[in-house]
């Protein structure tokens, strides 16, 4: 189990790195081995790592491609990463680690959003393309790994747990009446809503 969180300021406002660190501190229990941060002017990623594959520093996250175009923060395990890696090696890609994280990163570089059709595993991840200024989020088909997001007029937040959002000053802690009614009616929430207004699970 690892933990991920991040910020995308769609109005171009600079990322408050200290806020990113405070958000990440909320999920320290998800990754006791190391933590990492990356931010440019308006996008920031954070990661809490539980080392499973490649225990060396080359497995550190957030992880960038060698050319610096793509960056990832990833929670989970890709079971068939070796076969995907072989396919990418045949296409000329080179790897500096033995992690499934790096394979996933280059799979996105090669196939973009279609990369998820090749994945067998449990995962939640975010990849940012610095050239196209595109943020891509994905989650495994059965929703084994959690991933939540929140969006107001100018700030997009994502995280493995909702509690990361509580440390962002732009997050409004309002109750979702629709989700509350759903919970009281069925003792569960069957939609992608949560009890926090504006917070959704990635489907």
Give the strand order, joined by hyphens, for the main sheet. Answer: 2-3-1-9-8-10
By DSSP (H or I, 4+ residues per run), the number of helices equals 4
What structural class is derived from the secondary structure elements? alpha+beta
- The helicity comes to 10-25%
**Anisotropy-based shape:** globular
Outline the low-pLDDT stretches.
Answer: none
Number of strands: 10
C-alpha end-to-end distance: 20 Å
Radius of gyration: 17 Å
Taking the sheet with the most strands, its summary is:
6 strands, antiparallel
Write the element-wise H/E pattern from the N-terminal end onward: EHEEEEHHEEEEHE
Q: How large a portion of the residues is in β-strands, by DSSP E?
A: 25-35%
Task: Estimate the mean pLDDT confidence.
Answer: 93
What do these coordinates show?
20% of the residues lie in helices and 29% in strands. The chain has helices at 17-25, 81-90, 100-111, 177-186; strands spanning 3-9, 34-39, 43-49, 63-64, 70-78, 121-129, 134-139, 148-151, 155-159, 199-201. Strand 8 and strand 9 form a beta hairpin. The protein is built from four helices and ten strands. The strands form two sheets. Strands 2-3-1-9-8-10 form a six-stranded antiparallel sheet, with helices on one face. It has a four-stranded antiparallel sheet with strand order 4-5-6-7, with helices on one face. It has 203 residues and is an alpha+beta fold.
């Amino acid at each position: 189990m690892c933990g991920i969180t991040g910020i995308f300021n769609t109005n171009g406002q600079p990322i408050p790195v200290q806020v990113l660190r405070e958000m990440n501190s909320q999920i320290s229990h998800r990754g006791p081995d190391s933590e990492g941060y990356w931010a440019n002017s308006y996008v920031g990623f954070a990661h809490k790592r539980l080392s499973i594959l490649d225990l060396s520093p080359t497995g550190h996250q957030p992880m960038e491609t060698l050319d610096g175009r793509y960056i990832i923060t990833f929670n989970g395990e890709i079971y068939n990463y070796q076969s995907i890696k072989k396919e990418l090696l045949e296409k000329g890609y080179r790897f500096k680690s033995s992690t499934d994280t790096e394979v996933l990163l280059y799979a996105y570089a090669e196939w973009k959003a279609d990369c998820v059709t090749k994945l067998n595993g449990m995962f939640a991840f975010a990849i940012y393309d610095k050239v196209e200024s595109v943020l891509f989020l994905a989650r495994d088909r059965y929703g084994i790994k959690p991933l939540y997001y929140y969006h107001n007029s100018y700030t997009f937040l994502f995280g493995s747990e909702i509690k990361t959002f509580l440390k962002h000053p732009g997050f409004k802690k309002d109750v979702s009446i629709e989700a509350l009614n759903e919970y009281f009616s069925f003792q569960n929430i069957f939609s992608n809503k949560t009890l926090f207004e504006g917070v959704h699970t990635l489907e």
